[in-house]
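Entry type: protein chain
Record version: 2
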Amino acid sequence: MQIGLIGGIGPAAQDYYTRRLIGLLAQARVPLDMTIVHADAPTLLANLAADRKAEQAEIFTNLTERLACGGATCVAVTSIAGHFCRRELASQSSLPVIDMISTVAQDVAKRGLDRIGILGTRTVMESHFYGGITTATVVPPSESEIDEVHAAYVAMASAGVITAEQQETFDQAARRMIETAGAKAILLGGTDLALAFDSSNSPFPLVDCAAIHVRTIAEYAISGVVPT
């Protein structure tokens, strides 16, 4: 099955998806067939800030048509911020959409987590992951920290690299959510947060949204079954 990715919304995120999919398909001994189209990150961020769901969904729909013409049999958006118009995209897309929000929600439920912190863009944090998790309470950083976390995340995602100052911003916010807000894990609500956190050496449990999404995409490529 040919995977269709909408990328370009953060260079580190696209690199992460590509490398992970190469590894997972090689491990399964299944040839990787994939096409990537490029979305514009500044346009997405502007539409996100203004809550222009219809406009961004139209952009994604047009990119999906290009993927379909190239032989893709599914589409996935390599950005959590890009999922703010996920319902609009799903209703218009000519291809099945492998949605990150629903797959992450299923993972949280399976793990039995009842209270989780979240890092990412302001919209993702303030919307509690777009309201997509119903089995756990999603706790954002304190009001005084949200702007700082948002600014650090957008700068990191745009550059594709993380600075020591940005790392400290994320670390402090995460620690406070664990220590003072009672979070049992930290949800990485931005695909580029793979630059900042690694589940193999993190001092606290993580809900790695990008890793969960990539695994679901790989499972589709292997089985041909669209996740529900």
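Comment: The CA atoms of residues 18 and 214 lie 9 Å apart.
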